[in-house]
Amino acid sequence: MKINFPHRQFAHCESGVTANLLNYHGFPCSEAMAFGIGGGLFFAYVPFIKLNFLPLTTFRTGPGSIFAKATKRLGIEIKREKFSNPDVAEQRLDRLIAEGHPVGAQTGVFWLPFFPPAYRFHFNGHNLVVIGKEGNEYLISDPIFEEPVRCPVEDLRKARFAKGALAPKGKLYYIANMPQRFDLPQAVSAGIKEVCRGMLKTPVPLAGVRGIRLLARQLVKWPGKFDEKQTLLYLGHVIRMQEEIGTGGGGFRFIYAAFLQEAADVLENDKLLDLSKHCTEIGDLWRDFALLASRVCKGRAEIQDSFHDLSQLLLQCAAEEKILFGDLQRVISD
Amino acid sequence: MSSALEHELAELIIDFCNVEDVSAEEISPETPLIGPDSPFGLDSLDAVEVVVAVQKTYGVRIGGEQTSREVLQSLRTLAEFITREQNGG
């Protein structure tokens, strides 16, 4: 059994899965558009929540929210299921594929044998689409890869029931029903408004622009508070969350800039083109931060002097993002 | 056989990432740039430096839907990306 599913490669798994599923169901959609409608851009630094012993730092909204919100804003009916029993979870997946549904699944990267060993780390928020089954293998559209891949049944079972933070618990999701018509401008506006709210109007100082400032204030204290190994682990973690795990670089700011460019067309508003450029410039600023941080981690820059500069760069990112999202909010409300 | 651009990129990476005991002439354009099989010995943190070095030197941004993982597969894929971007994508 194999579903004729058009596979496309993208930078970010959940946005890519969303775009590919929408495309399959007759709604042509780029990765950037899926990310933007889904209100994917965010920032949060939560030092008291640790993932793999490192403070939670994220440049996007929570796992699953991009697919859920993008489909909701487009009026698409979806189904999501979680399981406690791996046998039941596998039977359900097989039944859905047999019925012709391409099925999204949350998995743990470590257990997916088609990932090169260097990329198989303990991250349980990886999304892919199961598009068929042949013998003892599932056929998979994983947007991180150039071509569809195969995965032994046993390995996918382990990946769907990986333990630890963000444990997937066999989570499956699929599109059950598409509407007759879509209100794309409305969906785009709603996605933008959510991101502006998240970045500017969060009630807690851990998220949005205030979260970036909090990280700037705390980061400068790390060399005095922790030993060198711990300090560099914390710093390396921030860069990895920003530049890896499918962000497209600059903590998703480049992907969001691409979305704003598309949004200018959808909403017939050229002001969004200028804001797209500003968003790209902010992505470059985040990259300047990552560059200095990686030089510190690699011992190519002095720790003591650099942490002050790193903190200043973060404050600059926060200041620019405050301007960008303020402007964006005004443009969308006009 | 490496092109002039591939050779230039090997020198840029050696310089930016302080790679020791390797010369640009020794690097095959097809070998992996990042990861355990990289003759440069580069990891994901080095990748950030390569991305920024390429942007500052050649004026092309690796980002967005053009993932650095794809572009930084080898000297060849990186050179092809730069050439393509400089010729207008």
Key features?
heterodimer; A: alpha+beta; Cathepsin B, Chain A; 2 domains; two-stranded antiparallel ribbon; 51% helix; 16% strand; B: mainly alpha; Non-ribosomal Peptide Synthetase Peptidyl Carrier Protein, Chain A; 4 helices; globular
Helix content of chain A: 40-55%
Question: What's the CATH class of chain B, please?
Answer: Mainly Alpha
Calculate the mean pLDDT score of chain B and round it.
Answer: 88
CATH topology term of chain B: Non-ribosomal Peptide Synthetase Peptidyl Carrier Protein, Chain A
Distance between the termini of chain B: 25 Å
The two chains with the largest interface, and their residue counts, are: A-B, 37 and 24 residues
Give the helices and strands of chain B as they follow along the chain: HHHH
- Based on Cα principal axes, name the global outline of chain B: globular
Average pLDDT taken over every residue of chain A: 95
Instruction: Domain count of chain A, please report it.
Output: 2
Low-confidence stretches of chain B: none
> What count of domains describes the coordinates of chain B?
1
Share in β-strands of chain A: 15-25%
Structural class of chain A: alpha+beta
**Strand segment count of chain A:** 8
Organism (chain B): Desulfuromusa kysingii
Domain Carrier (chain B): 3-86
Protein name (chain B): Acyl carrier protein
Protein name (chain A): Butirosin biosynthesis protein H, N-terminal
Short description:
Chain B: It comes from Desulfuromusa kysingii. With 334 residues, chain A is α+β, with helices and mostly antiparallel strands. Chain A has 12 helices and 8 strands.
